[in-house]
Design goal:
about 475 residues; alpha/beta; globular; binds nicotinamide-adenine-dinucleotide
Length: about 475
């Protein structure tokens, strides 16, 4: 099952913040991988633009080092490296001043696709957008890519949207949520809307509940100051988990086109019930012999910011009323694992008798690690001993289905950047989607602040606070085990 690489049109891609962590760790190694795969045309041009006083030779060395450090051994030794580095240039610019801009403008070929990646803090988005237009480097066909965080509440997200809208049309704005670029996330749409098998069952009549877990083993050390002003709700739930929830719960769009898909996602967010305080559990991780606790990492001994959140979410529409979605995300948990579990209801009557056990169908959609899906089905346990039932997984792990070509599957950033060049916004968040997500999230956070809510401590390396386990137990359910 060979993957097919379709080269994109020639392009100029400017990466503002081209010397930053994200550019060096993700964007440039990803672009190099696409170059090696033959997806990038010969005359593509990538321009790093940042405050550092570098020249093109210095930038090429920096990016070569970054690819060697973050791209893995195979990539570092790829003989295409010199050819890729030739595609790179660098201009020192100040987003807030005028230095460097005329030089940058002179490099842009307006007849090609041009895209501008804002890999900088959101405080600079307005300055960059305004100067791109003032220096006539961007026209109605140019694209801008913006990173999370897109605001910290509804008011700031609206302000950012308004700022960008002064210079660019919504069809030119690509708000990245790298979760949407993951292979399994797109496969979720293929499985739901490309098969007859699941869609008739995909509703409150047949599905008992859904769980979405994004668990990390790392803490916030190194970026504790930033994280402490954000917390799991803003950093993960409002964007990544919300996007996964939308894709799992949305109605089938009429077409697989950007606005058809995003219209349906927006309807899901607007149908979410307000969350009751007793349907949310917040937590903060404790220390271990070799790692300090959250508050030490955050350098804030009285921090009330959550490094874990679990919640029960209701969707008030015909498809989902009465079928809850449980969301859970946190740092320093048992394993690094992102997974969606769809738990189907019990068969209405067991012909084998209650003592044979109840075995539910569960669909596990795994985003990381080991992207893939398994469907638990009930069969007879082979061999003698009567009619004993057992659940076995039907495994749709990509590594097995795709074989050796799994290595060629682009990672999320690579795919999304190529989508920007192709002009396909399907996997990017629209402005009204982001605002609707904040409108749902804001009252939850405001409630915590008003009540002076203090997160519950939890052991590092655990499944989170025991209250999160109790929350599901009250509903007669249990979380799926967090495992790598
Ligand atoms: P960083 O601090 O490592 O890099 C910031 C970059 O912006 C540098 O290249 C710097 O030179 C440039 N810059 C700063 N001020 C400038 C100015 N006035 N004019 C021109 N350039 C200027 O930050 P980062 O970690 O690369 O993150 C960039 C953005 O991406 C942030 O908004 C961050 O929240 C977001 N983000 C980062 C990650 C990540 O993994 N690092 C993940 C998701 C989102």
């Amino acid at each position: 099952m060979a993957s097919r690489v379709i080269p994109v049109d020639a392009f100029d891609l400017v990466i503002f913040g081209g010397t930053g962590d994200l550019a060096r760790r993700k964007i440039l190694p990803g672009l190099f991988r696409r170059f090696c795969a033959g997806q990038m045309p010969e005359d593509a041009q990538i321009i790093g633009a940042a405050r550092s006083d570098l020249d093109t030779a210095g930038y090429r060395t920096m990016i070569k080092d970054a690819i060697e450090e973050f791209g893995g051994a195979d990539l570092a030794q790829n003989p295409s490296m010199p050819g890729f580095l030739e595609r790179l240039s660098y201009v020192a610019v100040d987003a807030r001043g005028d230095s460097g801009w005329p030089e940058l403008a002179s490099l842009i070929r307006m007849e090609k696709v041009n895209a501008f990646y804002f890999s900088v803090g959101p405080g600079l988005f307005g300055d960059l957008a305004e100067r791109l237009k003032r220096y006539k480097m961007a026209d109605d066909s140019s694209r801008i890519v913006v990173e999370k965080p897109f605001g910290r509440d509804l008011a700031t997200a609206k302000a950012l949207n308004n700022t960008l809208a002064q210079h660019f049309d919504e069809t030119q704005i690509y708000r990245i949520d790298h979760y949407l670029g993951k292979e399994t996330v797109q496969n979720l749409m293929a499985v739901r809307f490309g098969n007859m098998l699941f869609e008739p069952l995909w509703n409150n009549q047949y599905i008992d509940h859904i769980q979405i877990t994004v668990a990390e083993t790392v803490g916030v050390g190194g970026r504790g100051g930033y994280y402490d002003k954000s917390g799991a709700m803003r950093d993960m739930v409002q964007n990544h988990l919300m996007q996964l929830l939308c894709l799992i719960a949305m109605e089938p769009p009429a077409k697989f086109d950007p606005d058809a898909v995003r219209d349906e996602k927006l309807k899901v967010i607007r149908a979410l019930d307000p969350v009751e305080p007793h349907h949310v559990v917040r937590g903060q991780y404790g220390d271990t012999p070799d790692q300090p606790d959250y508050r030490t990492h955050a350098e804030n001994p009285s921090s009330k910011t959550e490094s874990f959140v679990a919640m029960k979410v209701g969707i008030s529409n015909w498809r989902w009323a009465g079928t809850p979605v449980y969301l859970r995300t946190g740092k320093r948990l048992r394993a690094r694992s992102s997974e969606i579990t769809v738990v189907f209801k019990d068969a209405p009557h067991s012909i084998f008798g209650a003592e044979k056990g109840t075995h539910r169908n569960e669909l596990h959609i795994r985003l990381q690690p080991n992207e893939g899906m398994t469907l638990d089905v009930t069969i007879k346990e082979p061999g003698p001993g009567g009619m004993r039932l057992v659940n076995v997984p039907l495994d749709m792990t990509f590594a097995e289905a795709i074989g050796p070509d799994v290595e060629d599957v682009p990672d999320a950033y690579e795919r999304l950047i190529m989508d920007v060049i192709r002009g396909n916004q399907t996997l990017f968040m629209r402005g009204d989607e982001v605002e609707a997500a904040w409108a749902w999230t804001d009252p939850i956070i405001e409630g915590w602040e008003a009540r002076g809510d203090v997160p519950k401590p939890y052991d590092s390396g655990s499944d989170g606070p025991t209250d999160a386990i109790a929350m599901l137990a009250r509903d007669g359910r249990s979380w799926r085990e967090i495992s790598a």
